[in-house]
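User: Sequence in, structure out. Go.
Assistant: Echoing your sequence, followed by the structure tokens.
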Amino acid sequence: MTQLTMAKAINEGLRRAMADDPKVLVMGEDIGKLGGVFRITDGLLDQFGAQRVVDTPLAEAGIMGTAVGLAFRGYRPVVEIQFDGFVYPAFDQIVCQVAKLHYRTRGNVQMPITIRIPWAGGVGAAEHHSESPEAYFVHTSGLRVVAVSNPQDAYVMLRQAIASNDPVVYFEPKRLYHSKGDVDLDVDLADAPPMGLARVAREGSDVTLLTYGAQVATAMDAATAAEDEGVSIEVIDLRSISPVDYRTVTASVRKTGRVVVTHEAAREAGVGAELVASVTERCFNYLEAAPQRVTGHDIPYPPAKLEKHHIPDLDRILDAVDRVMDRPNSLSGFEELGMPGSERGAATSGGLL
């Protein structure tokens, strides 16, 4: 095991994939000499050359269109979208071409394209730099959509995505780029958990807490705080949000009888809505309470000084846990819309807020 930041783990995943397969190349804005805005591709240009580390014009639709042509010719392009909010110009290419060509050609054409998206907020960025657009891609048949939460998964799942013959939208939470963890750089992909398998990040018996990406860390903090109050929370890191590993999810919900979903994206028609509907369909007779969602608000992403009020925090998660447990002190309707909530989580978790 090696201690790496998530950023370095992604860098090593790209390096290993390119070394193993000469058909793998990376392309995007400023990824060559600069090494990317977040330095994720640092050093790759020197090692693999400009034919395989391609600095592109500032034209996301052109980048994706080029990737489609490369996939047609047998290459495995890895596209970096510089920021989450910049993916929208490429949206037409992704949903109309990348997602559909395998089906449209009756399996004769594969689109082994990996679309890396630095994603979500928490870093004090400007407008269009803190978006959570995952629901758009989850809704689109033909795409795999994954979100990583730790350096080990960042490394392994990126290599799995690049090796996959399906197009993969790979969300990497930028506020976790500097988080560190153990990474096995020599792991055999055949022995690693499949890309579509959820992970039980913490076992519990009272409430199932479903989440992904950077919210996994917040969920783990909430579970620790809840334990002080006698509530046992099982945290499920979905890892893949399309398809979802409902076998792991439903096994947990049938055990606990209660479920809370949290994600940073907006509530309306979000991934959480689909999770709640699907869990209810599969586990209705096991549920002891109506499932709850803890999400970002249905607004454009706020200015940096206000984002802490937008991103679901420990207190909001604990209040949703109170609701499914039918405990007092849960948020009122006004508080759920964003008014100040309890400070209990901050007190029981050593001031994490």
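User: And one key feature?
Assistant: The two ends are 31 Å apart (CA to CA).
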